Amino acid sequence: MNNNGFSHIERVQSVCPQCLEKIPADIIVKDEKVFISKACSQHGEYLILIEEDAGYYLSRNNYDKPPTESKIQTKVDKGCPFDCGLCPAHKQHTCIALIEVTKKCNLNCPVCYASAGEGDHLDMATIDKMMDFYQEAENGKAEIVQLSGGEPTLHPQIVEIIKLARKKKFKYVMLNTNGLRIADDIEFVKQLSEFIGGFEVYFQFDGFERTTQSFFRGKDVLDKKLKAISNMVEHKIPVTIVSTVERGVNDDQLGKIVQFALDTPFVRGVNFQPVTYFGRGGLGDMRSRVTITDILGRIEKQTASTIRKSDFIPLPCNVDKIAVNYMYRDKHGFTPVARNIKIKNFLPSIKNSLAFDVEDILKQTADGLYDGGFCGCLSFLKDFIAINKISCDLKDKDKRIDYVNQNTFRITVTCFMDAYNFDCKSVKKECVHVITPDLKRIPFSTYNMFYREQYAKEPADSAK
């Protein structure tokens, strides 16, 4: 601890929030919180909160794993973050690839990172090439492709795009949507229900207050959101609820969102995302911005410790910016897998992937438990494995999918970076990447900070 009341953790490379020039920065601890401190010779000093709980931040590397290799497309020239593509300096493969199939949107969200509204649809030939590029870049083992936008359901060929993605043998296909078409078009919902099995709707839902909807989405769309969920449940479509979180707007609704998701059949999880300040996003107080541990603490408090902060672990492929809690249903309800085990002891068997879920725990631990190959601390999983072994033994594929969709659950918190909390060390491990029409993979954070405007000016068929 120095005379200014803070302790220094490390020196990193960041950028000036005004001119985006690369500048050095320091990660410091003050009052049990973690900040990034930096100064630009032209635009002054900045002190930005990056984590509410210093203890969590300092222990997260206990879960870090060596990166998973994948191919590179660009060379190191200007240095991170200006060589994205991926360049050789990037230290993680693609867990989730976003393909933005359209720039059009039927909302005008004040926090939209893409500033979507008007623009072109990508043509099928370009999308086909982008999917093939993603598979090739991941050596034929690409896992999650997320169809995004704009609002992807506005693409006139969205059903054909989903079918194309299924043919490309991705482990999961996600449709990232605001749900307005799902609320209004029941025939479209029926078409989506035909994709069940390796398919999810990544559904934008920020809370239950009408003022919350207006803040994030520009108008009150609560009734539409609830109708969309009802339609998906009726047709047994797996759903992940995705909630943007801003302090003083909906951070008091996190427990209610989680409980709603747990109580709603075929909702498989919730992903919370602190507001990121790019695109249309306005500027908040940088010394009190929402962080991962802020959200975890609020979930614990608002669920009366039914779900605890300690149930979450840093995701091994990106410990800096993603926390996860995997749960399974037993006779008492949903129970966090991590509650009574030390997951970090079993990191060698956990994949570097956001596709890692409770089904993977089953596959990776069952044999060891049955032959005594694991230590006693995993005895907690015996009931879980016995319960879920039923799902694996089900001969009928549809029944097995239905069983898994209703008996497993996950909560994730994903914190993307903007020009305020950015650091090169963390972005090199970012595993959510945008696939561009000219066949590059760009980390989501750097794409929105440095590259989106460039691609907005290019024609949609630039891959041809």
What does this entry show, briefly?
This protein is α/β, with parallel strands linked by helices. Helix content is 30%, strand content 22%. It has helices spanning 54-59, 124-137, 158-167, 180-184, 186-193, 210-217, 222-234, 254-263, 292-302, 358-370, 381-393, 397-407, 424-427, 444-456; strands at residues 6-15, 22-30, 33-40, 44-51, 96-100, 144-148, 172-177, 199-204, 239-245, 267-274, 313-314, 322-330, 333-336, 408-414, 432-435, 441-443.
Summarize the structure in words.
By secondary structure, the protein is α/β, with parallel strands linked by helices. Among the domains are: 1-51, no CATH class; 96-327 and 408-414, TIM Barrel (Alpha-Beta Barrel). The protein is 30% helix and 22% strand. The chain contains 14 helices and 16 strands. The protein has helices at residues 54-59, 124-137, 158-167, 180-184, 186-193, 210-217, 222-234, 254-263, 292-302, 358-370, 381-393, 397-407, 424-427, 444-456, and strands spanning 6-15, 22-30, 33-40, 44-51, 96-100, 144-148, 172-177, 199-204, 239-245, 267-274, 313-314, 322-330, 333-336, 408-414, 432-435, 441-443. Strands 5, 6, 7, 8, 9, 10, 11, 12, 13, 14, 15 and 16 form a 12-stranded mixed sheet that branches. Strands 1-2-3-4 form a 4-stranded antiparallel sheet. α2 (124-137) links the parallel β5 and β6 (144-148). It is globular. It starts with 5 loop residues before the first strand and ends in an 8-residue tail after the last helix.
